[in-house]
Amino acid sequence: MPNRAKMPKIQEVKNLVVPPPDVWHLSNGIPVYETNLGTQDILKLELVFFAGRPYERKKLASRTTAALMREGTRHHTAAEMAEVLDYYGGTLSMPISMDTANVLLYSLTKHFDKLLPLVAEMLSEPSFPQEELDSFVVRNKQRLQVDLTKNDFVAYRKFTEMLYGEDHPYGYNSYLETYSAITREDLLTHFQENYTSGNCMIFLSGKVSEAARKLLDEHLGKAIPKGERRQAVLLPVNSVPEKLESPLPGSVQLAVRIGCHLFNRQHPDYNGMYVLNTILGGYFSSRLMTNIREKKGYTYNIYSSHEAMLYGGYFYVGTEVSNEFVKRTVKEIYAEMKRLQKNLVGDDELEMVKNYLLGTLLTNLDGPFNISEVVKTFVTEGQPLIAFEELADVIKHITAKEIRNLARKYFQKEAMWEVIV
User: Fold this and answer.
1) Which residues contact 131 (CB under 8 A, 6 or more apart)?
2) Which fold has domain 243-420?
């Protein structure tokens, strides 16, 4: 019997290599990245359209278009579409990000021929019913009014708005009047301009058969019209850090956001910053958690994050504290950044963080759906799959001195925006 009182030896994570997908094209030119692995008769189909905020002509057009595409087509109502999906055991969702709008379908292999035509119809003849748009506006106005009473929600809005500017695709916020201004014509325009072959990539994974490939080309190769890749419209970002304290009536806590501009995944310092951010506040045993939650007891949760988009990125620390602890919490956040600038990370701590991150990467390669997710992440951001191996290599071999140099470069207090709500 194993000795349960003794921790098992930590095993080194090796062979972090992404199985390369088969790449082929539909008749309309859309590239398909196929990960044909697994033993279960199930398929995951994800279409990625570069149809996010940088490609809008009107605020909220990308989000509203994606939300209403599944609310009816020329031949099926939303209820009829939902009934077909339910009957054949499929799930259809429309996840969106700042830069992309996706169509995600899970289907049993034997029912792929029943569900794929529905997706093709949605991508060629969405009806965008006015009554569904009206309901969407009402629902989201109500949700927004509730969210605006939450200090963490307001702090995040104010932080990104200050960082990028109130008209920048990455910085603008929605208001009641923004929802009121969106029209059905805005949705049709956004759909026609962005849901084309030149703006699309397809990621197919699971147990893929030749019949599934033929179905994909038969339906999506014809349904999605041809078109060129659209250019993103981006505005200059704010460059002078600001500090903001904003009262929120009725709130018993204060939400804190402290951060700065950073970069996307293609930047040479991204991989090193991935490790540095984890040490500071990227996992439960991070320095911010150990100091400000466990030792000081100022907050229940504190974290740091590096958000990477196609055309930029930003770093921030987030937490919620009571009024009596807010100044001390802010002071300790900067103190932890300063320690990383002055002192080398200890061997034991660095080894633990490396093992944690390598284990996370290993999980990302568990099964065809996860592998396809990794492929999608790197391909849509214009990187070769070897970038995944390069990330793993940096995690394995980065030194304490390199981490300290990155902290000195990017954790400058005078470069930080601060928001307290």
Assistant:
1) none
2) Cytochrome Bc1 Complex; Chain A, domain 1 (3.30.830)
Give SS3 for 312: strand
Rounded mean pLDDT of 8-23?
87
Ranges of beta strands (E only) in 50-97 are 91-93
Q: How far apart are CA 16 and CA 19, in angstroms?
A: 10
Specify whether the CB–CB gap between 255 and 302 falls below 8 A: no
- Region class of 382: left (phi > 0), else alpha (psi between -120 and 50), else beta: left
Q: Encoding tokens for residue 40? A: 């279960």
Residues 6+ apart with CB under 8 A from 218: none
Whole-number Å distance between alpha carbons of 45 and 22: 14
Query: Rounded to whole angstroms, what are the CA distances from 238 to 164, 241, 242, 261?
Result: 5, 8, 10, 9
pLDDT in tens, 80-95: 999 999 999 999 999 9
Q: How many residues does the chain have?
A: 421
CATH number for region 22-223: 3.30.830.10
Alpha helices, DSSP H, located in 270-420: 270-277, 287-288, 326-342, 347-364, 368-380, 386-397, 400-410
User: Within 13 Å and on the Cβ side, how many CA atoms surround 227?
Assistant: 18
Domain segments of the chain as ranges: 22-223, 243-420
**DSSP run (H or E) holding 314:** strand 312-321
**Each residue of 374-387: pLDDT tens digit?**
999 999 999 999 99
Same fold, 22-223 and 243-420: yes
Would you say 397 and 237 are in contact if contact means Cβ atoms under 8 Å apart? no
